[in-house]
Amino acid sequence: MSSGSNSGGLMSSAGLVRYFDTQDRNAISMDPKTVLAFCVLFGVFVQILSLTVA
Q1: Which positions ≥6 away from 39 have C-beta within 8 Å?
Q2: What is the dihedral of CA 44, 48, 50, 54, to 10 degrees?
């Protein structure tokens, strides 16, 4: 095998690093604790609904 056949890995991922490294000012930013609290409360809500309906 020649050394040039497998040399595109690092260059092909450079665009992805640049794309994901930028911060969009229009994007919604939420605290991870808020998301976790919402998921826990939603799970409790579903459990309460399943006990009252069934």
Answers
A1: none
A2: 160
Claim: this prediction has a pTM higher than 0.85: no
Measuring CA to CA, how many Å separate 32 from each of 12, 22, 38? 31, 19, 10
CA atoms of 17 and 44, how far apart (whole Å):
38
End-to-end CA gap in the chain: 65
φ/ψ (deg, to 5) at 10: -70, -40
d(CA 39, CA 12): 37
Q: Give residue 21's pLDDT.
A: 55
Q: Is the pLDDT of residue 35 over 80?
A: yes
* Residues ≥6 apart with Cβ < 8 Å to 30: none
